[in-house]
Amino acid sequence: MSEQEFTKVCKEKVVEYTNKHIDKTDNTFIDKSNVYIVWQCKTLQNNKALLSTTLIDGMYYEVTYNGDKKELYLDAYKKFENVKYDF
Questions:
Q1: CA gap 7, 27 in Å, rounded
Q2: pTM of the predicted model, to two decimals?
Q3: Which superkingdom does the taxonomy of this entry point to (predicted)?
Q4: Phi, psi at residue 9, to the nearest 5°?
Q5: Which of 53, 52, 76, 73 lies closest to 63, judged by CA?
Q6: Is residue 28 classed as helix, strand or coil in its secondary structure?
């Protein structure tokens, strides 16, 4: 899978997942323009990307493509807090 194709699929899957799980009372839906890639990597036939959306919901997404099995996985995470530690 090319980088452009993987990026397109990642954004589509995040849009699908987000719109399916968003609070229906918010009457809010997103499209691909609301999704951005934070980090992306291709190693051999495998791809991985970390994505987020413009929504202020603390969610981020990890999409992995296993080129051997031709399978795509989406993991959805919620950020609960950011704690600073001084050393």
A1: 27
A2: 0.89
A3: Bacteria
A4: -65, -40
A5: 73
A6: coil
Query: Cα–Cα distance between 35 and 11 in angstroms, integer?
Result: 6
Instruction: Count Cβ atoms below 10 Å from residue 35 Cβ, excluding itself.
Output: 21
Q: Sort 63 into a burial class: Cβ within 10 Å, 0-12 / 13-18 / 19+.
A: buried
Which tokens go with 22?
A: 């968003």
- Segment 13-59, tens digit of pLDDT: 999 999 999 988 878 899 999 999 999 999 999 999 999 999 999 99
Which token pair is 36?
């951005």
| Rg value, the chain, Cα | 14
